[in-house]
Amino acid sequence: MHKVLLVDDESWVVESLKDLVDWERHGFEVVGQAYKGADALALMKALKPDVVFTDIRMPEMNGLELIQRGRSLDHPVQFVVVSGYAEFAYAQKAIAYGAVAYCLKPFDETEITGVLAKLDKLLTAARPAPASALLYYLEEPSDANRLRLLAELDGKGFGDWRADGLVPVVAVGAGDLPMPGAKAVRLKTGASKTAYLLPAARADELASAWREPVPLGLSGIGVGGPVRDLSEIRAGIDAADALAHQFFVTRECGVYAAQPFRQDELNRLMADMSRAIAAQSAGAVQAAFKGIVELFAVRSLSVLHAFQVYNMTVAFLFKLGQTEETLYSYEQLIQSYRDVFDMLDALEALVARDLAPAADPQPPESKNRNFNAILQYVTQHFREELSLQSLSEQFYMNPSYISQLFRKEVGETLTGYVARLRIEHARELLGGGELTMQEIAERIGYQDYFYFTRLFKKMTGKTPTQYRSERQ
What we know:
The chain has helices at 11-20, 37-47, 63-70, 88-96, 109-126, 133-139, 143-154, 161-164, 200-211, 230-244, 247-250, 263-278, 282-297, 303-318, 330-336, 340-355, 364-380, 388-395, 399-409, 414-432, 437-444, 449-460, 464-471, and strands at residues 2-7, 28-34, 51-55, 78-83, 99-104, 166-173, 185-190, 193-199, 218-223, 254-257. It is α/β, with parallel strands linked by helices and 472 residues long. It folds into five domains: 2-126, Response regulator (Rossmann fold); 132-257, 2-Layer Sandwich (Alpha-Beta Plaits), CATH 3.30.70; 263-355, no CATH class; 364-411, Arc Repressor Mutant, subunit A (Orthogonal Bundle), CATH 1.10.10; 417-471, Homeodomain-like (Arc Repressor Mutant, subunit A, Orthogonal Bundle). The radius of gyration is 28 Å and the shape is globular. Mean pLDDT is 82; it is low at 358-367.
């Protein structure tokens, strides 16, 4: 049922509207009524209605102001304006402020039922599909979604999962995890990635079964620690996701659980690296890289540490005036390099090149021509996996030089430019209403649902769900 709040400063108007139609038959439920704008706003915060029918002319806070203030709440609301004044200016303002319909008093049953049909279509399109509902609940935290998530988990028959715990598991690859006799929640978080929540009592048994052999089509399986509270689930999935990508370090398909890592030793080596680059000491740089390689070779570091090494080294080079690309996620590393040792080789070569005497600059007349070809290619292929290294191989140019061209000619990095193109395309797709959030993320080139939603909110100030609701 879609929840409705009725607002008018005359109580008889509210009652007449409430009694006019069979709300439940049309999929709606009147959950509250208010006679002042301020009271309506308070009820909107408490009841979180899907739809608000509001009069325009009310004392103190009128209907237009209520719409404006209601738009700033943390949950999407559709507004229908009702008024006894058949003035186009009011209707125009109401629509401009985001109302989906404008109805005149006295109410006509046929008109109201038509509005309800339109609202039902809008709200159903904005609602996540069942397969992605749990992802939506995790990504859009609110009291209502917390209750829905609890209901979903309690309905799976896990027993007292708050006491016993649920274990988040993430599988990377095209295959699926066998769950013989086990209840589990399955969340498709990417084109080639699936997260599961399963009872802690079965986790060790199932993990052992997945080891020999690893299910066909999977590269890595990450088994997180037990969670006993809703607030821990998202972080638990993120931790299991990182463990699932540990094959980047081990170069083996496998099942990976949490283990102690040698973070302090890595911190010391990265401090050595910083001093070596600042002093432009090639020998000290080599020694630092050798120590880091040894830590990864004995599997004492994770894919998160590989991500840390890459971005910190790039940051050290930035102090020398270099402009290499920083990365937003460890998945970008995996898309760019075969494994962590391939990454370290490339990174060491990059540092060595930047510490060497500067080569003769490129002829100025060739820069724009070269960059135009690269920019055109990136603009046409932004949905695909792109990196400085792949562009370097395609256009036979130094990756550092391509990075410098992007900063100079576009004013941002390659990664930033591609992200902007992708989010702009996502905004177009969100306006259509036919695709799920997961499908949109994959269409624009992001295989991780959570990463897409974080980036979208960072660049637009709204979550994809909020943006779609406002557009509709």
